[in-house]
Amino acid sequence: MVTLEKLINEFTDTSIQFGEAIKQGDLQESNKQMKKIYEIRKELSLRDSTTEMVRLMNHSDEFVRLKTAYSLLLILPEQSREVFKELSQYGDFWSLGLKKD
């Protein structure tokens, strides 16, 4: 059985790889990483992973924060929205089509 720590590390690493693929415009790779993230999130949902996931809301990588906020949106809506709001303030990819308040 895979440990919770290993799953959290896989989620983090895969989110970073997803971000790199997005930044490079590699749609095929970003889709591949999204599928991995989906599978990891399914496994995390079966475990008591909320505390560990919440810690990732402050991760240094913006894509880890994005995927974490999305994963916790139903559990922690206000905190997730804050992450989305923060990311929308960044230039480049994050501000495309987003209205800044």
Which key phrases capture this entry?
DUF2019 domain-containing protein; Serine Threonine Protein Phosphatase 5, Tetratricopeptide repeat; 5 helices; disordered C terminus; mainly alpha; 101 residues; ARM-type_fold; globular
Question: How would you briefly describe this protein structure?
Answer:
It contains 5 helices and no strands. The protein has helices at residues 4-24, 27-45, 50-55, 62-71, 77-88.
Explained architecture:
The chain has 101 residues and is an all-alpha fold. The protein has one domain (4-95): Phosphatidylinositol 3-kinase, accessory domain (PIK) (Serine Threonine Protein Phosphatase 5, Tetratricopeptide repeat, Alpha Horseshoe), CATH 1.25.40. Helices cover 67% and strands 0% of the residues. The protein contains five helices and no strands. The chain has helices spanning 4-24, 27-45, 50-55, 62-71, 77-88. The protein is globular and about 40 Å long. It starts with a helix and ends in a 13-residue tail after the last helix.
